[in-house]
Amino acid sequence: MKHSKGFKSRSRHKLRGGRFSIAEALKTLSDGARVIVKINPAVHSGMPHPKYHGQQGIVEGKRGRAYLVSINDGNKGKTLLTRPEHLIKVKDQVEK
């Protein structure tokens, strides 16, 4: 029997839980902000591939309602087009 090769295949634990909130959809991110890709499974539009769940990147710009996020996939740089519901801003750490 052939195994499935769909967009969400083998991602049962990554795409668990999550609720939609208007505040998440309306949040704004500035260029150069550091973000973490955290997929909200309640929102299907603008969802990045589950492979990038948990990765950290930098916001390069905005295209429509989505943001361009550059990440490193091994040695290769990639750009994701992702809605703000799937991004979390990284809190800056204060050095002692």
Give a verbal description of the structure:
The chain has a five-stranded antiparallel sheet, with no helix packed on it. With 96 residues, the protein is mainly beta. 16% of the residues are buried. The chain has a domain at 23-89: SH3 type barrels. The mean pLDDT is 91. The protein has one helix at 22-26; strands at 34-37, 56-63, 66-73, 76-82, 87-89. A hairpin with a 2-residue loop joins strand 2 (56-63) and strand 3. The radius of gyration is 14 Å and the shape is globular.
Summarize model confidence as the mean pLDDT. Answer: 91
Taking all Cα atoms into account, the compactness measure Rg is 14 Å
Name of the level-1 CATH class of the domain at 23-89:
Mainly Beta
Kindly identify the CATH topology of the domain at 23-89.
SH3 type barrels
Spatial arrangement of strands, main beta sheet: 4-3-2-1-5
CATH superfamily of the domain at 23-89, by name, is Ribosomal protein L21
Label the CATH architecture of the domain at 23-89.
Answer: Roll
Number of helices: 1
Report the count of strand segments: 5
Uncertain parts: none
Question: What's the shape?
Answer: globular
Biggest β-sheet, characterized? 5 strands, antiparallel
Q: What is the ordering of alpha helices and beta strands?
A: HEEEEE
Short description:
By secondary structure, the protein is mostly beta strands. It has one helix at 22-26, and strands at 34-37, 56-63, 66-73, 76-82, 87-89.
